[in-house]
Amino acid sequence: MEILVPxxxxxxxxxxxxxxxxHAGREQVRGLFCDTQFEHPLTYQxxxxxxxxxxxRVDTVxxxxxxxxxxxxxxxxxxxxxxxxxELKIVPTKKYAKALAEELGHGFEVWYGM
Length: 114
Description:
The chain has helices spanning 11-24, 41-54, 66-73, 83-104; strands spanning 3-6, 29-35, 57-62, 109-110. By secondary structure, the protein is α/β, with parallel strands linked by helices. The chain has a 4-stranded parallel beta sheet with strand order 3-2-1-4, with helices on both faces.
């Protein structure tokens, strides 16, 4: 595996996934979906569909849920308070990538579609 692509179900990450596959081949690409447990049902379906369409593995990590974080911090996330992004996406992605690199015995590129 050469490239990890975090996917959200949106068009930018899907385009990035497609470009990574075109660049390195599907066997060298893996997707990662960070589940906030607050996604629309169509998002979950789209992640499953992308696995089928592109023939790639998309792993899912979960580090809690948005409603719990809102209760914990007593406010909704926003531009100045990105606790949901940090705790539900960035931190789990870093942990996953570290564990994956240790499992594979080598590093890899992470491609973000933004």
